[in-house]
């Protein structure tokens, strides 16, 4: 990676930077606060964020939204017109109470 300007970065600063598909990028650590501790954010082999206790949604190029009485009740994820996952949302007294991914 070429550096321009009068001030050259230190070895540590250089190690913080990478090149991704020809684009300069900075290495960063993703973390989140759970109210008590800082937790690392994990990614899968495709670089998608993994959320605990949930099923990751496969790669898709289309989302089809369905509504009932003004509430979002399902999201269908498709890749090349083929359904790859469906998220079903359930409401009780107008409040979202359940989400199922299949």
* SSE sequence, one letter per element: HEEEEEEEEEE
Bulk shape: elongated
For the record, give the distance between the C-alpha atoms at the N and C termini, rounded to a whole number. 44 Å
Q: List low-confidence stretches.
A: none
Calculate the mean pLDDT score and round it: 83
Give the number of DSSP strands.
Answer: 10
Structural classification: mainly beta
Strand content is: over 45%
- Our Rg estimate from Cα atoms comes to 21 Å
How many distinct helices?
1
Helix content: under 10%
Number of domains: 1
Task: Give a topology summary.
Layout: H1 11-15, E1 17-20, E2 23-26, E3 31-33, E4 38-40, E5 42-43, E6 49-50, E7 62-68, E8 71-79, E9 82-92, E10 95-101
Antiparallel strand pairs: 1-2, 3-4, 5-6, 7-8, 8-9, 9-10
Tell me what the structure shows.
The strands form four sheets. Strands 7-8-9-10 form a four-stranded antiparallel beta sheet, with no helix packed on it. It has one domain. The protein has one helix at 11-15, and strands at residues 17-20, 23-26, 31-33, 38-40, 42-43, 49-50, 62-68, 71-79, 82-92, 95-101. The chain contains one helix and ten strands. It starts with 10 loop residues before the first helix and ends with a strand. Helix content is 5%, strand content 51%. It is elongated. Strand 8 and strand 9 (82-92) form a beta hairpin. It has 102 residues and is mainly beta.
